[in-house]
Please model this.
Amino acid sequence: MSWVRRREIPIAIFAICFFVSVIGYYFKDPIAVALNSELSGWIMIMTNIALGTGFIALFLHHSKKISRKAKGFPFSFVIFGAIAVMFIAQYSGPAIRGWLYNDIFSNVTTAVICFALFYEVSGAYRAFRIRNLDALLLMLAGFILILHFAPFYESAVPSFAVIPNWILEVPGMGAGRGIVIGVAIGTIAIAIRILLGYEKAYTG
Amino acid sequence: MDMITSLIVGALTLMAWSMLYRENKFYSLIESLLIGFGMGYLLYVTINTLNNVLVTPMAAGKWILIIPTIGGLLLFTVFIERFRFLARWGAAAITGTGLGFAVSRAVPVQILGQVNQFYIDFGKTDALGVANWLIISVTAITTILYFTFTRPHKGAMGTIAKIGRWSMMIAFGATFGSTIGGDLTYVIDRSLFLSQYPQVYLLIVAAIIVLWDIMRRRNQT
Amino acid sequence: MNMSWKFLSDNYRQVIFIVVLIGCFLPAFRPFGFPISASAQTEKTYDFLQGFNKGDLVLVDIDYGPNAWAEIGPGVNAVVQHLFLKELKIVFVSFVVDGPAMTEKLLSEIDTRGAKYGVDYVILGYIPGDEVGMGSFAQNPLVITKDYYGNDLNQYDIWKGVKMIADFKVFIPCHITGPEAWIRQFSGKLPIVMIISPAALSLVQPWVNSGQLYSMIPGTKGGAEYELLLGKLGIASSIMDATTLTLTLTMVLIIIGNIVYRQEKPGSVKKVT
Model:
């Protein structure tokens, strides 16, 4: 039964799904469109089932932590308790559901995400140091855009808006266009690499 | 929000922010709560959505959906060493379809849609417009060519790559500045909340706890 | 290097934390009332939506979770408030797991003007599959047969007006990631107005310039400008005072960072190679 472990099987599955999706888009043949539509429905089901793998991974990791009484294992009980509370709350009616998700979970998540800003500002403090021309360009563009997001300055002196808008709409957009085209070419390249069997991450 | 909820949320917010002072068990508790709540909601939505897209159609007679069900369940074999290879079959189907959708639209929308913008009608564009078009075109083309690593970045190619790098420095600097401007709202939102009654008094409690801890650690050293 | 610069150099992180907190808290206790003005993109979006008629069908895609609410939530609130004020028919959809819950949060925070579920708006819930789900929905919205609460969509008046994606007058995706997936799947089918994170501004500009994206609202600042145009100041506007003060302090810190750097290493500007 070693043939089931062969790399060609996942590559073949990849190729079939890939070409059904592509052909279903470019050719308006009813069979191709119907196949594409049915395949998308199947993939939606599979990705939904796949969400469960995250839960299983978390469950196994923390169960092991509890059984070994590893460092921080009491917090694993907190995690399991919180999972149960949130899950049951979703079936308990809009008032409890809204209280737990909107008032508690949403606000506390915002509090944790706050760290991003503190570390970004300390990152800007260090990164926006003028060491060379590259750093000067980075710093100037960043500085001007920070000014753009402080609404007082553009409101007080409307002509201030010209420079950040020019940066966003001309050189910034040019680089953005290059990145957009580059990303599209990269996506096509990845698909070709997988079809030819070079990408072992997806097919083994 | 009622007073008790405000105090609970205020306390949890300050426990989360205690990480700014130093790592501690209050923050670990918040982390665990958030992971649990997030996963609990994910579980609910997964079951709810499966009921809509799988269980109901199958109950109505669409038995062919057993195929994607098996395909999805194969993904769980990733946890069993001996059968881990089966998970690649499900992953290959998902990746293949996803890339098929992306690649088929990437050509007309991303590539052709953006390359079209390199065209300009000189008769209808003023001098400033032409200058801007030139800068946009040069920055776009040099950015694409910067990522060509099959030729060494020397001579003319080196100059092109350098201009591409400068263009990206401007774009990334603008992105970084914008990111700071955007992420600031998280802290301001929480600050506005904490400045209101009754949770504003929790700030005093938090300050006292931090000062007490500083004195305690100083006495220990 | 003198003592104050050395102190700053050794403890820059703590100083930055305190400065940022001062900048955020001060306006909360003592509002400054800094003025704001609407940008061209925000005005373009406002004028476009203002031109719709009562009963027009619009599609709003809530694709962010609680980890992104403060960044774009106020902007989404302002735009969706406008849709309800115009008495448009709104279909809410999500391609991320947290989307439906954020939709409910959004609806609890704005004035829906007595809109009735199933008649004036409906929540389709989470559609799995990421870009496959988006593409599938864009090709045929009728692949979705049940709403977020598990009810048959065909019983709702609002859903009777939906036969294909072009029945919607506009598509408003709200998210904090790059815009490519939404534009790939929906571009060319109906106008797209995006509410985005400010961090994605550079990536979104090429699409606005090419016309594949009609317009965009960047984050909470865009939301504050939108509230100004709407004449209904809300949470986005209340955040702007602290935004101005804190960003000003950030700019001062960056300048100080460069001065400290010069103090650490005199003549440290390197020649460009």
Q: What stands out?
A: Chain A has a mean pLDDT of 90. The radius of gyration of chain A is 26 Å.
